[in-house]
C-alpha cells in the first residue's frame, strides 16, 4: 500500500535500530512520531523568524505572529469551529480540561450539582473534576461501560439529571480504543442543560472530527498526538461561553490595559493566553495539520482500520493472548494480556525485538480496575505502521511466552 | 538478545513461576506494603522476629517476573538472618542492581546482576526489599516513586 512505503520515510526517527533490531513503534497513543515537515517548520522558525508575538512592529515579530495565528485558523478549519477566535492555545488536552474546570466550572457550580464523566476516562479527565468537586462541594458521577468496552448508553441516560451541570467524555479511549457516540451523548446532555466537554486527544490524529456535527461546548486536543510537537494543544470552545468566562491565568498578552486600580481583560482567545506561549509549538502544530490534510483522513482511517483488523487476527491466533476492549466502534488500539506473563515483562522482551509498546495502567486506573487488572499491554497504530510490523509484534509476543509462559 | 537471557535467568523465571515464599505469616510481628505506581506492582511483606533475627517471612501481591522472583529469593536470603545483616544484604543487592556493583557474597541473589542493564526494571527488583525495610521500620506504605 502507498502509505506503507512513502509515509514511514517521512518520519526520520523510524529509520533507527534499537540494538540490532529495526524500530517498530507501536506506541502512538502515547505520542505520535514527527514527520520531517514538522521538524523543519520548528527549525525554520528558530533559524529565521524567532521573535515574540502580538507585540513589536518589527518584521520578525510580524512573521512570528502571522505564523502563530495561521495555526489558529488551521485548527479552526480542520475541526470545523465557527471562528478562529474559538481556538485557545494551551499546553495540551490536560491543560485544556483544567482550564474549563477552573475557569468555567469552579465559579458556576456548588453543592448538589453533578459532573458526569465515564469509566473509561484518562486520569486527565478525572482528576481536574475531582479538584473542582473538592473546591465547590459538587459531586462526581461516573457512567459505567459494558464488558466489551463500549459506553453503557442506558446508564448514561439515567445518570443525566437536572443536577448534571457538566458532562465530560472522551471521544476515543486511550486505553482500549473505544469510540464514543459523542454527538448523541452531547445532545442528550444538552437536554438537561449541561455543558459538554469532549476530550479529543486520541481522536484528531486518526479520524475526521467535525465540531459542527458533535456540537459540544468544549473540545480539547494535544498537538503531540497528531504528529505535532509536545507542549502545545488547543481548547476549542463556543465563543459566547468563552466570552462569559473570567480569565484563568493572569499575565502579559491577556490584558487590554493595566493599572494598579483596574485591569481590563483582552478579548477571546487572548484572554486565556497569558504570557509568551509555545510559539514554535504552535507553528509545528500548523505543519502537522498541513501534513494530516495532505494525507487525508480517508486514507488514515482506511489504513488504521486495516492494521487493527490484521493485528486482531495475528494476536488472536496466539494462545494465551486475551483482548481488553472489543467495542464495535474502535480506533487503532489493541490492548491485551498474555497468560502467565506480566505486561512489564512483555514490554521488556518486546523492546529487545525492537518493538515499542506501552505497558501499565495507561493513566486509566479505574478502567483497569473495571476489568480486574492492574496492568495491560497496548499496541497502538498510526499511519506509518505496517502489517509486517504487526507480524514482528506477534513473533515477539511468542518469544515472551517461550521465555516466561 | 544475550542480555535478555541474562535478565531472565532460569533461576529467576523458576522463582517467578513457582514462588516458594508466597503467602502470609499469620500471626505476624511486622507488615509492610509496597507499590510501584509505574506498573501497578503491589507487594505485602509479613514477618516474625525472634529477638533480632528474622524467623519467618512471606510475601504476597502481584507483580512481574523480576519483582516476584526478587521477593521470593529475598525471603530465602533473609530468613535466619539478623535485622542488621538483612539491611547490609539490601545495601549489597542495591549496589549490584543499581549501583557500582558488589564484590561481597550475595549468594543466589547474584542472579539479579543482569537487571543493571535494564534501568527501567531496577524498581521491580528492589520493590520487595524497600518493603522489607519499611516493615522492619514499621513505617507506612512505601512506593518506588
Describe the structure.
The complex is a heterodimer of chains A (405) and B (145). Chain A is an alpha/beta fold and 405 residues long. Chain A has two domains: 2-30 and 297-404, Aspartate Aminotransferase, domain 1 (Alpha-Beta Complex); 39-293, Aspartate Aminotransferase, domain 2. Helix content of chain A is 41%, strand content 17%. Chain A contains 14 helices and 17 strands. Chain A has helices spanning 2-9, 36-49, 59-79, 93-108, 127-136, 153-159, 182-191, 211-214, 239-244, 279-295, 297-316, 343-352, 365-370, 387-404; strands spanning 17-18, 21-22, 24-25, 87-90, 114-118, 139-143, 164-170, 195-199, 218-222, 233-237, 255-258, 263-265, 321-323, 333-338, 355-356, 358-360, 376-380. In chain A, the strands form five sheets. Chain A has a seven-stranded mixed sheet, sandwiched between helices. In chain A, a hairpin with a 4-residue loop joins strand 11 (255-258) and strand 12 (263-265). In chain A, helix 2 (36-49) runs antiparallel to helix 10 (279-295), helix 3 (59-79) crosses helix 10 (279-295) and helix 11 packs parallel to helix 14. The longest helix of chain A has 21 residues, at 59-79. The model of chain A has no long low-confidence stretch (mean pLDDT 95). Chain B has one domain: Alpha-Beta Complex (Sufe protein. Chain: A). The mean pLDDT of chain B is 91. The N and C termini of chain B lie far apart (29 Å). In chain B, strands 3-2-1-4 form a four-stranded mixed sheet, covered by helices on one side. The radius of gyration of chain B is 14 Å and the shape is globular. Chain B has 145 residues and is α+β, with helices and mostly antiparallel strands.
Amino acid at each position: 500500500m502507498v502509505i506503507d512505503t512513502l509515509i514511514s520515510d517521512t518520519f526520520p526517527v523510524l529509520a533507527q535500530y534499537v540494538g540490532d533490531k529495526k524500530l517498530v513503534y507501536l506506541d502512538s497513543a502515547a505520542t505520535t512520531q514527527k514527520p520531517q515537515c514538522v521538524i523543519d517548520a520548528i527549525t525554520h522558525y528558530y533559524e529565521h523568524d524567532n521573535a515574540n508575538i502580538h507585540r513589536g512592529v518589527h518584521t520578525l515579530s510580524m512573521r512570528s505572529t502571522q505564523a502563530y495565528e495561521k495555526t489558529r485558523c488551521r485548527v479552526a478549519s480542520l475541526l470545523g469551529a465557527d471562528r478562529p477566535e474559538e481556538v485557545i492555545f494551551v499546553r495540551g488536552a490536560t491543560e485544556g480540561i483544567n482550564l474549563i474546570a477552573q475557569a468555567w466550572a469552579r465559579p458556576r457550580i456548588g453543592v448538589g450539582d453533578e459532573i458526569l464523566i465515564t469509566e473509561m476516562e484518562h486520569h486527565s479527565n478525572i482528576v481536574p473534576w475531582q479538584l473542582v468537586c473538592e473546591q465547590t462541594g459538587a459531586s462526581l458521577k461516573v457512567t459505567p461501560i459494558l464488558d466489551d468496552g463500549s459506553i453503557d448508553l442506558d446508564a448514561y441516560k439515567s445518570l443525566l439529571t437536572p443536577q448534571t451541570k457538566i458532562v465530560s467524555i472522551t471521544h476515543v479511549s486511550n486505553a482500549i480504543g473505544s469510540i464514543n457516540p459523542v454527538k448523541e451523548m452531547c445532545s442528550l446532555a444538552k437536554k438537561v442543560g449541561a455543558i459538554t466537554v469532549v476530550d479529543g486527544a486520541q481522536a484528531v490524529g486518526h479520524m475526521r472530527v467535525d465540531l459542527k456535527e458533535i456540537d459540544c461546548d468544549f473540545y480539547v486536543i494535544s498537538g503531540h498526538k497528531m504528529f505535532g510537537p509536545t507542549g502545545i494543544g488547543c481548547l476549542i470552545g463556543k465563543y459566547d461561553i468563552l466570552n462569559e468566562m473570567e480569565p484563568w491565568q493572569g499575565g502579559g498578552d491577556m490584558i487590554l490595559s493595566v493599572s494598579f486600580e483596574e485591569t481590563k481583560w483582552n478579548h477571546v482567545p487572548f484572554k486565556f493566553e497569558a504570557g509568551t506561549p509555545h510559539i514554535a509549538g504552535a507553528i509545528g502544530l500548523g505543519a502537522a495539520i498541513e501534513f494530516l490534510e495532505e494525507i487525508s483522513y480517508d486514507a488514515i482511517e482506511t489504513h488504521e482500520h486495516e492494521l487493527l483488523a490484521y493485528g486482531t487476527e495475528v494476536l488472536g491466533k496466539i494462545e494465551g493472548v486475551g483482548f481488553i476492549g472489543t467495542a464495535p466502534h474502535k480506533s487503532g488500539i489493541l490492548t491485551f494480556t498474555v497468560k502467565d506473563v506480566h505486561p512489564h515483562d512483555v514490554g521488556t522482551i518486546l523492546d529487545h525485538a525492537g518493538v515499542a509498546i506501552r505497558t501499565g495502567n495507561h493513566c486509566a486506573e479505574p478502567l483497569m480496575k473495571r476489568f480486574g487488572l492492574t496492568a495491560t499491554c497496548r499496541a497502538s497504530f498510526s499511519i506509518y505502521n505496517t502489517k509486517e510490523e504487526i507480524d514482528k509484534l506477534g513473533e515477539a509476543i511468542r518469544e515472551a511466552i517461550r521465555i516466561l509462559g | 538478545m544475550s542480555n535478555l537471557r541474562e535478565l531472565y535467568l532460569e533461576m529467576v523465571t523458576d522463582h517467578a513461576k513457582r514462588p516458594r515464599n508466597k503467602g502470609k505469616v499469620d500471626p505476624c510481628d511486622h507488615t509492610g506494603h509496597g507499590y510501584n505506581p509505574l506498573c501497578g506492582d503491589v507487594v505485602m511483606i509479613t514477618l516474625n522476629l525472634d529477638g533480632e533475627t528474622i524467623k519467618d517471612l512471606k510475601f504476597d501481591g502481584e507483580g512481574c517476573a523480576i519483582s516476584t522472583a526478587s521477593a521470593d529469593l529475598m525471603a530465602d536470603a533473609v530468613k535466619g538472618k539478623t535485622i542488621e545483616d538483612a539491611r547490609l544484604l539490601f545495601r549489597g543487592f542495591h549496589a549490584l542492581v543499581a549501583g557500582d556493583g558488589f564484590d561481597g557474597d550475595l549468594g543466589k541473589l547474584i542472579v539479579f546482576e543482569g537487571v543493571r542493564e535494564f534501568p527501567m526494571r531496577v524498581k521491580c527488583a528492589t520493590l520487595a526489599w524497600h518493603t522489607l525495610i519499611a516493615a522492619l521500620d514499621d513505617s507506612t506504605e512505601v512506593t518506588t516513586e
